[in-house]
Amino acid sequence: MFDCLCFDFDGTLVDSTEAALEALARVGPAFGCAGLDRAAVERLRGLHAREIVQTLGIPAYRVPGFVARMRREMRAGLLATPPVPGWTETLEALAARGLRLGVLSSNASESLAAYLARYPLPHLDFVVGGAALFGKSRALRRLAARERLRPARMLYVGDELRDLEAARAAGTGFVAVGWGYTDPTRLHAAGAGAPLSSPHELLERIESDAFDNEEVRRVGS
């Protein structure tokens, strides 16, 4: 049984795809990115975050600046985007079962605070922002130590290949959502199991006797 469920933010609790596309249209030209049509965006959804940066043609030394600009530009779009329908009720039900709940995100802490002030998702025991784009495994381990949790009894819920890799490296369980940045078929092929089709499905899986061992084994292999 898991003691703690930790959620990614962008693409998981919030379907921020449109906000990201609008931000990219504004930020991209300064970094040499050509405009993307819908077909190009769908192709990017099949790629790892590192591959996306390479495909956009952004030099490695400019990636930190690009990410920082994107986060700033996305903030207004995020504030206009409610959480994915069903999360409020699902979080209520998970908390009622005695599970600790929280957020671990690469998004800036101040952006998370502003969003949660407008859309107060219930029963979040911790909110950790500012994790490095490719440093979530380290952040998950630090979080487990701070909260005195065994990683194997934590479940990370995310939408990207880097989320899966972080959970695998940190030794936590992992569940993917099917509405985020990465194409669900790519997540499944990478070993994430069947992505969630709705927040309510997470509750059903948590209550399944076969769920815990299957998911921990899957990401740990």
Automatic annotation (TrEMBL):
Gene3D superfamilies in UniProt: HAD superfamily/HAD-like, Putative phosphatase, domain 2
One Pfam entry name: HAD_2
Swiss-Prot/TrEMBL GO biological process terms: DNA repair
Gene Ontology terms, MF aspect: phosphoglycolate phosphatase activity
NCBIfam families linked: HAD-SF-IA-v1
Stored PANTHER family: PHOSPHOGLYCOLATE PHOSPHATASE
Lineage: Bacteria, Pseudomonadati, Pseudomonadota, Gammaproteobacteria, Chromatiales
InterPro entries found in the cross-reference section: HAD-like_hydrolase_sf (IPR050155), HAD-like_sf (IPR036412), HAD-SF_hydro_IA (IPR006439), HAD_2 (IPR041492), HAD_sf (IPR023214), PGP-like_dom2 (IPR023198)
GO cellular component: cytosol
Protein name, as recorded: Phosphoglycolate phosphatase
